[in-house]
Design goal:
The protein is built from 7 helices and 11 strands. With about 290 residues, the chain is an alpha/beta fold. The protein has one domain. It has a 5-stranded mixed sheet with strand order 2-3-4-8-10, sandwiched between helices. A hairpin with a 4-residue loop joins strand 5 and strand 6. Helix 3 packs antiparallel against helix 4. The longest helix is centred in the middle third of the chain and has 47 residues.
Length: about 290
């Protein structure tokens, strides 16, 4: 038994410096938190894609333990086999146990990885659109991102002299294929038609719901009659519209021209101030 313990200690010895380093980092971090605090406790406005970023973080917390376990389990079995006499039976048993565990992990990880990829793309898409929308501030617009409501968030809200606009971002990957039409989405007034026969109406419904929610909330909060215009933007795609619709479907680069030239439902300076104040209060982000 003494030999076995010494062998285990010999194999674990290389892990000791890493364990000491991690423990020292933990103690240092805990000490810094107890002796200082952040100079501010909130952001005035939420950054673009904040909800999707938090979902990615939440999924990372579920994915990382699985990945860590997948990495460590074979090492532990290898150490265990190294401490025993050579046995093909033990090696085969370890192989089957690790294989079964990997199959279980693959079944659990696949949907989590798929969700994380979707949220990451959504986060990147909202940031891309935000860079275009933020340029409207030079034209006197107030720009808000990731505006929180009870069950969901509105990706972007614009407030300016030409009105209020609720912008929904739909980030969709392009399939690598030959042909010039693979980058184009056709909007026929009813649905989005993507290459390969795929189509979508959910994004249009979400854009309408966003505008309705923003209109009702701002009208109630400001006592002004405010009607938000729904915009659906698809970053990285060329949008071809065959008819007019209540939802303006476009590439992000075309939003500026649309909102600056619209003449329906303009706002007075006082209405802009009241609407912007309510949105600023709603979009404050506490820092934890």
């Amino acid at each position: 038994m003494t030999v076995r313990i010494s062998e285990v200690g010999y194999l674990l010895l290389p892990f000791l410096p890493a364990a000491v380093l991690l423990f020292s980092f933990y103690l240092r971090h805990k000490k810094e938190l107890s002796q200082s605090e952040a100079p501010f406790d909130e952001l005035r406005r939420r950054p673009a894609g904040e909800s999707n970023r938090l979902r990615v973080v939440e999924l990372d917390e579920k994915i990382d333990p699985w990945l860590m376990t997948i990495s460590v389990t074979p090492i532990l079995f290898a150490l265990s086999l190294a401490l025993q006499k050579q046995s093909w039976m033990a090696a085969l048993l370890a192989f089957f146990i690790v294989t079964i565990f990997c199959l279980i992990a693959e079944r659990r990880l696949r949907p989590l990885l798929r969700k994380r990829a979707a949220y990451r793309l959504g986060f990147q898409g909202e940031r891309y659109v935000a860079e275009e929308l933020n340029q409207l501030m030079t034209a006197g617009f107030h720009v808000f991102h990731d505006v929180p409501f009870e069950k969901y968030n509105v990706d972007h809200v614009l407030v300016g002299s030409t009105g209020v606009f609720a912008v929904e971002t739909k980030a969709k990957r392009k399939r690598l294929a030959h042909g010039e039409e693979k980058h184009k989405v056709l909007f026929d007034g009813t649905r989005l038609n993507f290459p390969g026969g795929k189509w979508d109406t959910d994004a249009l419904d979400q854009a309408r719901l966003n505008a309705k929610t923003v209109s009702q909330w701002l009208s109630s909060a400001t006592a002004d009659h405010i009607t938000a215009h729904p915009i659906l933007t698809i970053p990285g795609w060329f949008v071809e519209r065959s008819t007019r619709s209540d939802v303006y479907v476009t590439n992000p680069k075309q939003i500026r021209s649309f909102v600056l030239n619209l003449t329906e439902n303009p706002l007075t300076a006082a209405e802009i101030q009241r609407a912007s104040h309510q949105l600023e209060e709603k979009c404050k982000l506490p820092i934890e």
